[in-house]
Design a protein that fits this description.
about 325 residues, mainly alpha, Four Helix Bundle (Hemerythrin (Met), subunit A), Arc Repressor Mutant, subunit A, 3 domains, 16 helices, flat
């Protein structure tokens, strides 16, 4: 690991012919042995934030110039500049998903970085959209997919022992801290009469839930995540562009639904566009068909919808929005 205090020291740049997921190894990502390298006063997230704070956010003009140069040359060094200048954006977006994720917050950042790499590969700078704005869609898509793929890890423990641990852990840590030392998981486990592993898991869950924009970037810094991430806020022009895109999709959805009848119409409006969406079981009972048949009709509708949108909005692929196409 490079020394985060040396601002003149650059991470090793990738030398692949094209950028791919393996480029992640060159980014300041927490590895399996990372925690062993972190001093006691640091936590892994603070260490990571210090690493990426070395890289300034590019101006609109710089970002556009580098993006166009990469689009024309496919030089991985140019792609790398786009990636490292948007690592803060990944952290900001990951924060939006933390309430759905009760495990290691750095896992979300890692997946978001994979989405960022995909955005670099697919970005067309001649479309008139800012790269960081476009990348946000891919970052969100990868984080969301990771959460859904690992949904069993998201749910909080419901056993009596886990509930007891959850409610007592913070009070116990505050008590030990007031005595003048930072409690270790082993010390807390001994006091609560539970396994050390349970303490470690619950600490991670609580940490992920409590993380906020007011959290300090590092233990000896007054700078907060809000200040650290302030440069990633979309401009009014970008917000307007996003609303224009959504309006196009809303209009197409309305036009598409006018051609649906019977079961297709019900499943489209009550499941694909429902808020909240009806379950397969609910629609199965309402329509008098099996849950598998509901799923088959749903898949058929989605395929028809994608074809419908692509025919009327050829650039739809450029905006990786997921169903349902609404706020």
């Amino acid at each position: 690991m490079k020394n985060p205090n040396n601002n003149n020291e650059a991470l090793e740049l990738p030398n692949q012919a094209d950028l791919d997921v393996s480029t992640l190894s060159a980014l300041p990502i927490v590895t399996e042995d990372f925690e062993e390298q972190v001093p006691a006063k640091f936590d892994p997230l603070q260490k990571y934030l210090q690493e990426i704070s070395r890289y300034p956010v590019l101006s609109r003009e710089e970002e556009e110039a580098i993006a166009k140069a990469y689009y024309e040359t496919k030089d991985p060094r140019l792609a790398y500049k786009l990636v490292i200048s948007n690592l803060r954006l990944v952290v900001k977006i990951a924060l939006e998903f933390q309430k759905f994720w009760a495990h290691n917050f750095l896992d979300l950042i890692q997946e978001g970085n994979v989405g960022l790499l995909q955005a670099v590969k697919k970005f067309d700078p001649y479309k008139g959209v800012k790269f960081s704005y476009y990348a946000s869609f891919w970052i969100k898509a990868y984080i969301l997919k990771y959460i859904m793929d690992n949904w069993k890890l998201v749910k909080m423990g419901t056993t009596q022992a886990q509930r007891k641990l959850f409610y007592k852990l913070r009070k116990e840590k505050e008590k030990l801290t007031s005595l003048g030392f930072e409690p270790t998981p082993a010390e807390i486990a001994k006091r609560l009469g539970v396994k050390e592993k349970e303490v470690e898991e619950m600490e991670q869950r609580m940490f992920s839930q409590d993380l906020s924009l007011e959290a300090p970037v590092s233990y000896d810094s007054e700078d907060t995540l809000a200040n650290f991430l302030k440069d990633t806020k979309p401009t009014p022009e970008e917000s307007f562009a996003r609303e224009e895109i959504l309006n196009k999709f809303r209009h197409l959805l309305k036009e598409f639904s006018q051609n649906l009848t019977g079961k297709d119409y019900v499943i489209f409006h009550e499941r694909l566009m429902g808020d909240p969406p009806k379950t397969l079981n609910e629609l199965s009972q309402k329509l008098g068909i099996s849950k598998e048949r509901v799923r088959q009709i749903e898949e058929k509708i989605i395929k028809k919808l994608k074809k419908f949108i692509e025919e009327r909005l050829p650039d739809a692929y450029y905006y990786p929005l997921a169903l349902p196409y609404k706020d």
